[in-house]
């Protein structure tokens, strides 16, 4: 039974590497040849489908370990298409190892827009202006580092804000924070 459990864990690991970590070398044929060479093709395809379904269920629910325990127990009690106790243990071991990394991969795949990487600022006095009364007024100079999707390099956006504009931006950010807090309360 130990070999069977190790093969099941290996299959889960291989599917995770292919699906979430981008390892293109792991094919169905490779998994069958390495882990289940004696298994008939139809049985292997059913096992592959079952394992993919188990992983997708865990990922889509972002299961914590209590949920995983309940899920694994329910899978062992299924009459058709269920898993054995040993496979449930391997499923738990797999999820403990991969949960956080798979979560990070899924989140990064979902973040397709620009990301704010860094904010820096300083206060300067205006030395030139269209109107004399604007000279020597404090001005916030803000620099935003924005990363576009998957790209590693960042673009920098710089702009100035006077006290009035800065107050409006701060109030808008406070409103955003209130909305987020209202939605996050349980």
TrEMBL record:
Secretion signal span: none
Superkingdom in the source lineage: Eukaryota
InterPro entries: COMM (IPR017920), COMMD1_N (IPR033776), Murr1 (IPR037351)
Pfam family, one: COMMD1_N
Domain COMM: 115-184
PROSITE patterns xref list: COMM (PS51269)
Membrane-crossing segments per the record: none
Record-stated family: Belongs to the COMM domain-containing protein 1 family.
PANTHER family membership: COMM DOMAIN-CONTAINING PROTEIN 1
Protein name: COMM domain-containing protein 1
Species name: Branchiostoma floridae
């Amino acid at each position: 039974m130990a070999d069977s459990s190790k093969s099941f864990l290996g299959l889960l690991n291989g599917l995770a590497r292919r699906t979430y970590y981008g390892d293109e070398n792991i094919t169905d044929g490779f998994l069958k040849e390495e882990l289940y060479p004696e298994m008939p093709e139809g049985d292997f395809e059913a096992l592959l489908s079952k394992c993919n379904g188990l992983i997708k269920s865990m990922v889509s629910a972002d299961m914590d370990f209590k949920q995983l325990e309940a899920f694994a127990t329910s899978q062992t009690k299924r009459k058709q298409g269920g898993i054995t106790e040993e496979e449930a243990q391997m499923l738990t071991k797999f999820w403990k190892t991969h949960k956080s990394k798979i979560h990070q991969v899924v989140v990064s795949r979902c973040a397709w827009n620009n990301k704010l990487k860094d904010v820096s600022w300083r206060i300067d006095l205006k030395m030139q202006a269209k109107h004399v009364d604007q000279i020597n007024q404090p001005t916030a100079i803000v620099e935003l580092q924005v990363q576009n999707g998957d790209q590693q390099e960042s673009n920098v956006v710089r702009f100035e804000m006077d006290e009035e504009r800065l107050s409006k931006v701060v109030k808008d950010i406070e409103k955003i924070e209130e909305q987020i807090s209202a939605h996050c309360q349980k």
